[in-house]
Amino acid sequence: MPKTLTITDNRTGKQYEIPIEHGAIRAMDLRQIKTDADDFGLKTYDPALMNTANCVSRITDIDGDRGVLLYRGYPIEQLAENSDFLETAYLLLSGELPTTAQLNKWKTNVTLHSMLHENVKKFMEGFRYDAHPMGIFLSTVGALSTFYPDAKDIFNEQSRLTQTVRLIAKVPSIAAYAFRHSQGLPYIPPDNELSFTGNFLNMLFRMAELKYQPNPVLERALDVLFILHADHEQNCSTTAMRTIGSSHSDPYSALTGAAAALYGPLHGGANEAVLKMLSEIGTVDNVPKIIKSVKSGERKLMGFGHRVYKSYDPRAKIIKQTADSVFSVTKQNPRLDIALELERIALQDDYFIKRRLYPNVDFYSGLIYEAMGFQPAMFPVLFAIPRTVGWIAQWEEMLLDTEQKISRPRQLYVGATQRDYVKRENRS
Ligand code: SDX
Hints:
The protein has 17 helices and five strands. By secondary structure, the chain is mostly helical. It has three domains: 1-45, no CATH class; 65-267 and 386-399, Citrate Synthase, domain 1; 270-371, CATH 1.10.230.10. Strand 4 (68-71) and strand 5 (74-75) form a beta hairpin. The longest helix is centred in the middle third of the chain and has 27 residues, at 157-183. The protein is globular and about 80 Å long. The termini are far apart. Bound molecules: s-citryldethia Coenzyme A. S-citryldethia Coenzyme A binds next to helix 16.
């Protein structure tokens, strides 16, 4: 059986054989379908790119119906169980799991780049005490482009690696400083003897003690959460990273745009919105009322639903298991019962079943972050830290893809046809 699509244009009676590859046809193959020589040819119309592949990728694969998530072919469940965040970062960026020697070199390289230029701290001091940490985060990442002008040399592999290490190493420092700024506390310098997540906890929570000792359960829980959030194929913020990067912007500027996209409550800002929703619900008794308001279309159930997953988000399952370990060392989050009751009712209600709405990665993550001592405003920042790895991996894949060029979609123009200017005195 030929892998082609036969299209008959009923306007002309002409037939066209369009090749099918990887379950898709090339939109440009439709341009030959014209009514006459002056015709531009057929375009595809796909608002929000619901059914459009804008790249070929080898990084992350999602099976939304089966709830499967693979990083470079490895199941997310196995990575969460056996790997750590920096090893998973190496895998996403290079395509292969590192040897012990490679991993040790990689971890040392990242560790040695976690400090921020003193001027960056002064820049961050300029924010109000109540500035949203995500606003501080994306502004400061953008500002880093002025500290590393060599980042513009995007086709130099060594330069890309240098910026990659700088970004992965510095985003936790920026996040921690934003958190400390919001608390009116002094910045804590990195401790190179601690792990990636252990040092992050140190920069966040060290007070008067000379040496911060991270709680190993929380250190591991954060590592698992970072693994789960590292990449997710062509989501909104990754598409922003690829689109901005396609104009050959430096990676700091592109990542600023990606972080801005993640900030939205429909995307990475959902974890913060979930906590606000759970706080508003207040008690388990109020759950039926919120479900009713969702079903009447008054609001969305934040942390539920997904463009790709039409089954349980595999990351939500792992986060739920991780919550148990976190709550074993922190006090149980009282909002967990509300979340569990919301899930229980929603998963048996036809409104959600019919629309295939399940908990996504953001539904339970905020409960863990809150139990660890973070305010909801920090949650999107905790998403952006690990997703920095995915954004960079996808950006580099786009840059090296010979089929890619500057992203510039078409439109279907339905506005006014050409008309002449009317002088003000002649306007009614
Ligand atoms: C992330 O893309 C990624 O991979 C993202 C992400 C990643 O790792 O990068 O996984 C991270 O962003 C997770 C999603 C976090 N956002 C939320 O939890 C916000 C709440 N969710 C919704 O806004 C929504 O589910 C989206 C945005 C996530 C997906 O929206 P879609 O795919 O555009 O689906 P839709 O809006 O077309 O919904 C289809 C139907 C609609 O009902 P009808 O118009 O058919 O009657 O389902 C309804 C929607 O109203 N619906 C919901 C709902 N989500 C969809 N109804 C109530 N509550 C919801 N949460």
